Amino acid sequence: PCLLRLKPTGRERTMWRGWWVLACVASLADGAFYLPGVAPKSYKTREKVPLFVNKVTSTKTQLPYAYYDLPFCKPKRPKAASENLGEVLEGDMIKSSLYEIEMKVPDGCKILCKKNHNKVEMKLFRSMIDDEYRIDWIVDNLPGAMKNEQYGYVTRGFPIGFSIAPPLENMKPKHYLYNHVRIVLSYNEDPEQFSGSRIVGLQIIPFSINHMWDRLEDFSEATTTLSTCNEMNPAVNDPGNFQSIEEADEVVYTYDVKWIPSDLTWSNRWDVYLLGNPDDEIHYFSIVNSLMIVLFLTGVVAMIMLRTLRRDISTYNEMQTLEEAQEESGWKLVHGDVFRAPECSPMLLSVLAGTGVQIFAMALSTMMFAMLGFLSPANRGGLLTALLLLFVFMGSFAGYYAARLYKLFGGKEGKRN
């Protein structure tokens, strides 16, 4: 610890004291802290790792659904996870699930449940597949993602199913449901730094399998053995055995759990989510193109204004008589109106200006906190919560600026402002 002898004697001692404080803070940098909600968690071998389900979203419809609004396997009483203000406003609906995962314990083709889907439920599945809905799962605060092996980037969530275009135009496409998932978890171990294992990756690989079993026996999640996949024969996507959802049918939901050791540290586990899709380069090009057009048009307008002002100034310099000098023309006709108070609704103008100051200060403060690392993507809802709190706090600056501007306009009702 740094010990300071504070002696309030003069400006120089105050300055040196400030430098000592900065030096102490720098010397204690190794004792960095974690923000609330984003601290690493170490798991012991065979310790239970909860899997939470979140909302089902679509970039096509922009209309989210709760996971259990769909006819998936559901606990008797799903427990809702505690959420902050930002998560609630973002529409997160995080709840517990039936999936059982233990640290470093692999599972092969474990039965989750069997559902007898009717025609209405199958129609709902087909509609959501056409609308490109994706399922969001969470393990150790990491969102589930599918990895594109060709390009090396990941997409958050995984689809409910898929459809195959028909060979003929007058035929309808066939829809298939992803009823088996392989949960691939990466973990990191460093006995010198911490005990146990830390989860650093979550990959979801979906499969569509029309499961087969001995139907002469009573079906049980614990005792029934499937012939389509088991611990010895892992699940595969067989085009001849996809789980169709065109008609009412029994669907067995299963899952695998696979653990992979990784050298990736816990602090860098979000990097894979920040890698952009190659298609995003098109958006960057569009943004740069629009920015260049705006700058070009701004330059053209600035050059026209500059030439106009130069022409007016040269005209004023060439005036010979006093009468000509007294005759105002060009931009001088309005030079006195620039600092004139508005005659109509000065209070409204000052309030709008204060609101602009409030929004600008909120955005600037948010960017500063983000650059300092306080708004980590691991802290769900943190960005939206910070925006709301800063917007309320910056209201004091907005009120001061609006009142000062209203007083500058000569307003008589400052208390109302």
UniProtKB/TrEMBL annotation:
Family that this chain belongs to: Belongs to the nonaspanin (TM9SF) (TC 9.A.2) family.
One GO cellular component, as annotated: membrane
Location, primary (coarse class): membrane
Transmembrane annotation, as ranges: 284-306, 348-375, 381-403
Gene Ontology annotations of biological process type: protein localization to membrane
Stated name of the protein: Transmembrane 9 superfamily member
Membrane-protein topology: Multi-pass membrane protein
InterPro entries: EMP70 (IPR004240)
Location relative to the cell: Membrane
Keywords, ordered alphabetically: Membrane, Signal, Transmembrane, Transmembrane helix
